[in-house]
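This part of the workshop introduces the protein records we will be handling. A record pairs a protein's sequence with a compact description of its fold. As an example, a complete record with its sequence and its C-alpha cells follows.

_____
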Amino acid sequence: MDKVHDPDNRPWISELLKPKDILDKYQERVALHKASEGLCEESLRPHHLQSMIGVDDETFKDLEAAMSEDNLTTPGEMDPCQAVTPNWNGGVYGHQIPKIKLKPIPEEGRLALKTLYIQADFLKKSKEKNSKLAVNRRRELMASNDHFFMSQPMKQKYLPGFSDRQRLYTVRVYRPLIHPNVAVIEMLQREIIQSQEIWLLGNNTLDQLRDMITCPVDNNYVGEQQVDTVEKQAPRAGDVYTSGFIYIGDCFYIDTRKEGNIDYSDVIIEWAKRSNRGIGPFRKGVMQETKMDDLELRIGCPYVFTHQGNHEHLLVVTDVRLVGPEDPQGESKYPMVRCIGQSQSRMCMVCEIKIATWVTLNNVRVAENPFFWCTLCYKSFNLTRDGGKEGEFQEFRY
C-alpha cells in the first residue's frame, strides 16, 4: 500500500518503525538518571539531585548558590503568602507560607491611597465584630470559600513501577468517509473529522482498541423489532454484525472472537490479485492475539478500521511515548478514551426542534429520501388512528 499512499513524500509521516524497540532503549537511559522508587518530592535531597545531574561538588554548589530563592528577593517587598485559596493541604507553596499575612498600614500610606484608607477603616470596624460588615466584605471576595478547590478530584497516586516504564500509544479515530460512488459533491469537499482519541498501553490488544471505538451505525436497530420493550431489548447492529478488521501496514487483523464472523479481507485480497494494481501481497493476523507492542507502523500514517460490511474509519497513531507521572496511573485505567470530537445531532426535518428518532426510506409523501423524524412528527404524519401505515415506506429507528 506504500506504493499507493506514498508516505515517504509526506513529511508528517514517519518511517516504518517498531515503537517498542525504540522506547525500550529510551527507558533504559531514563532509568539511569531516574531517582529510586523510594524517593518522592518531599524526600529528595541535594545529593540525589547532584547524582541525577551528574556534576562534581564544586559545580553543584555554584548551581545551588545561583538558583537560591534568596536571589529572587528585593528590599522592601511584601512577605510571601498564598496567591489563591487552594484545597488546603499545605496550599500551593507549603505549610510554611500562610494564606494571608497582615502588615500594619503606615499612616502616610493611609492618607495617600484611597484603597489603603478603605482597608484601614474596615480593619478598625472589624474589631467591633460587626456581622453586617463581615457579610458585605465576604461578598466582595472572589474566592470566599474553598468549595471549588475541595470539589476537585484527589491527586492520583504516583506509581514508580508504572510511570516511565509503560509504553503509551495515542490513536485517533476519524468519522467514516463516504465513497465517491454514493456521495454528492458537497460531501466530497468536507475535511475528515476526528471522533475519538484513544490511549492504549503496549500490552493492550487490537480487539481492545476495536471495543473502544464508538460508531452510531453500531446502535442502529436491525430486524423487525424497532423499539425497546420491558420484556426484550431491540437488537442493535453492533450486537448482530460483529465482523470487522483493522488494516495496518500490509496486514489485515481479523476479529475472530465470535463464531461465524466474516473475514472481510478475503474479498479485498482476491480483488488485489486479479490484476496488476501494484498493491500487496497482504498478510492476515488476529485482533485478540496482536498487542500494540507487536506492531510495526508509521507515526502519522492513516490506517483503516472496517465494520458493518463497508463502514470504514481512518485510524492514525499520532504519538508513542512512555507513560508520565501526570498520566492515569495503573494498567486498569487503559485503554481509555482521552477525548471525543465535536458532534451534532440530526434534527427532525418537520419541526426542526427535536432530535430525530426515526428515519424513513422511499416515502412518496415527503420530498427527501431518507427523511428524519422525531417521535411525535413520525406518528402524526405516518401512522393512522389504528396504528397502521399511511402509505408505503420503510421505517427504522434512528
About this structure: The chain has a mean pLDDT of 81. The longest strand covers residues 311-322. The CA atoms of residues 107 and 117 lie 9 Å apart. The radius of gyration is 32 Å.
